[in-house]
Design goal:
Immunoglobulin-like, 3 domains, 18 helices, 4-stranded mixed beta sheet, single chain, 27% strand
């Protein structure tokens, strides 16, 4: 039975747009009821006077808007268009994770399906991935295969699991008829894995099921990394904690309990495109967050891109009639980059300009439709060496059907013909689950996830071999570009003509289709002779650090062309020196140092190397 809680006095949250739903069922309550007691006010759930409460952060995230996501609805409509006989079944499977409260309650009430139409008229469905979904998931099967594909277990006991021991339970019992219980599993990656590990069935030309496809596997990728051993969970990055002792409830007024640490429900990923689209269509999509709140979440994504996602480095090596520009890209995350649904992609935009600001080489430029200029059909191959401007290093998953043809329909996806998405540090081909997350289509690239034939670097080196054309100074800029949805996948949606695809495309047409820039790097190089006597104006050392991020020791390699004095130190973001590593005369050639960083706390630092040819700075991430 479902009923509205009439006693709930829902406060109008700061920056609220449309109201949060206030609704209760036999198994769930919606976010409006949770916000009654858990919205920032006065000394409750505030930091420096700013509301950091769960609902305030959550309501402008993809989790809160999972059921309203117009791209997701368009993709589902594309699949049901291709497989009309399975429409209700497809929608029921998809709403299990995008509208979990509505789906679970419907099944409990005896319904066999839960479709998009049912979801759109259901307060539980419209509340997305809400509070009483995640906090009611039972730990009994977490981490097992049965928990994947939305295999979470929620029973009718109305127990809310939380991260704090000895919770004050009576207020929740009185107001929303939920009891509270401490359980550490709410801070474990296995909780997230229930809906972020998806193996979808694929079908042959006769619409007969032919197997399962690894559609989304960030949890399995995380298992095959250094991050699990280091204790870095999904929540570590996506729910950053603060050590402040925090009062988490406004009711009852007399209580004095405070908790530490407090986990911010920010849930920032990389999907700026959809958050921007939601922000620009708040009323038509029925979104509850304001434009200001969306801007805050988008700002957190930008901060994660810059500080926690990837590193770029550039080295220039002169040749007899060309120069080699080596671009090192390192994944800082605990999963493949990009991860999740394989419509996403990342690529290197490399631009070389002469002293007159004229572009003499550019790979990875994009057009107004978001497509990369020079992109091959049906997909761009992986490169170790790039020699032409229409060759682009794109990190992506490309899938094919049972006939070996590239497809954009997930239910036709039989396997990857290319999966060169950057793996996380520590990723190896010997891991027990490697078959689910294997690297495909890198064409024997020996430096992809390897250093000296040892796996697990989480990085790739691409060499751009170009003719500098003339002597003089060159400015080399590399950008790491990210895109939520490939243009080919957008075009596939356009071929369907469903109401959902038309609605999404109308919104998409109004957006800027430029990629998000994860990070960038620039260097200068002076060409003194096109016959091999070139000198670098800023540096002549190629720096490599592994692992990065690190929990302990790091290996630091660099190469000098001549014997010279070298100073190497580590600085914090305030510019304060926190560690001396080396000071003195160093011989030419490759040098390798072992750096123990255990004295450094979690955070971002900068390793600075001073030589006679200049100063180099490399970002270092320490994780505890």
């Amino acid at each position: 039975m479902r009923y509205i809680i009439l006693f709930c006095l829902f406060p109008v949250a700061l920056f609220a747009q449309n109201p949060l739903p206030v609704y209760n069922s036999s198994m769930f309550t919606t976010s409006g009821n949770c916000a009654t007691c858990h919205t920032g006010s006065g000394t409750v759930l505030t930091q420096n006077g700013v509301d950091i409460s769960p609902v305030t952060h959550w309501r402008s995230t993809m989790m809160a808007n999972a059921s309203k996501d117009p791209l997701w609805q368009a993709v589902v409509s594309e699949e049901t268009h291709r497989f009309p006989g399975m429409k209700d079944e497809i929608e029921s499977i998809c709403t299990k994770c995008h509208a979990p409260m509505g789906n679970t309650q419907a099944k409990k009430d005896g319904l066999t399906t839960y479709t998009l139409a049912q979801m759109r008229s259901d307060p539980l469905g419209k509340d997305g991935v809400s509070c009483t979904t995640c906090h009611q998931i039972d730990p009994q099967n977490l981490g097992s295969q049965s928990s994947y594909n939305g295999g979470y277990k929620i029973d009718t006991t109305r127990i809310i699991y939380g991260p704090y021991q000895n919770p004050f339970a009576q207020p929740m019992v009185n107001f929303v008829n939920f009891n509270t219980q401490y359980s550490p599993h709410v801070n474990n990656s296995e909780l997230c894995a229930t809906c972020h590990t998806l193996y979808t069935p694929y079908f042959d030309d006769n619409n007969q099921m032919a197997g399962y496809f690894s559609e989304q596997t960030p949890y399995i990728e995380w298992k095959n990394s250094n991050f699990e051993a280091d204790g870095t969970e999904c929540q570590t990055c996506h729910m950053p904690s603060i050590q402040d002792s925090m009062d988490i409830s406004t009711i009852p007024a007399f209580h004095t309990a405070k908790h530490s640490p407090y986990y911010k429900h920010e849930f920032a990923g990389g999907n700026k495109m959809m958050l921007t689209m939601l922000k620009n269509n708040i009323d038509s999509l029925g979104v509850t967050a304001s434009a200001e709140l969306f801007d805050s979440t988008i700002g957190r994504i930008d901060a994660n891109f810059y500080n926690k996602t990837a590193l770029l480095d550039i080295d220039v090596i002169p040749g007899s009639d060309s120069i080699d520009i080596k671009v090192l890209t390192t994944n800082l995350t605990g999963h493949k980059l990009p991860t999740g649904i394989p419509f996403r992609r990342m690529w290197i935009h490399l631009k070389v300009m002469n002293s007159n600001s004229e572009i003499i080489f550019e790979s990875g430029k994009w057009g107004s439709d978001g497509e990369v200029i020079g992109h091959d059909t049906p997909f761009e191959p992986h490169y170790d060496i790039i020699r032409a401007q229409d060759q682009i290093q794109i990190y992506e998953g490309v899938f094919i059907d049972v006939n070996g043809q590239v497809t954009q329909t997930l239910l036709r996806a039989a396997e990857y013909v290319k999966d060169n998405r950057l793996p996380p540090a520590g990723f190896t081909t010997s891991h027990i689950s490697y078959d689910s997350v294997k690297i495909t289509g890198i064409n024997g690239d020996e430096n992809f996830n390897k250093l000296a034939n040892v796996e697990g670097t989480g990085s790739d080196i691409v060499t751009y071999r170009i003719d500098p054309l003339t002597n003089g100074e060159l400015t080399i800029t590399a950008e790491l570009c990210y895109q939520t949805m490939k243009p080919a996948a957008i075009q596939n949606l356009a071929s369907v003509g469903s109401p959902e695809s038309i609605k999404f495309l109308d919104m998409w047409q109004d957006e800027d289709h430029s990629p998000s820039i994860i990070t960038s790097k620039s260097e200068t190089f002076v060409v003194t002779s096109t016959e091999g006597e070139n000198e670098q104006a800023v540096k002549d050392e190629f720096i490599y650090i592994y692992p990065n991020p690190s929990k302990g020791d790091m290996t630091f390699s660099f190469q000098l062309k001549t014997s010279q004095n070298v100073e190497i130190s580590i600085f914090n973001p305030l510019g304060e020196k926190v560690m001396d590593i080396l000071s003195g005369l160093v011989d030419p050639g490759k040098q390798t140092l072992n750096i123990n960083t255990k004295s450094l706390s979690t955070g971002v630092y900068f390793l600075v190397m001073k030589t006679q040819s200049g100063v180099r700075s490399v970002k270092v991430v320490i994780v505890r």
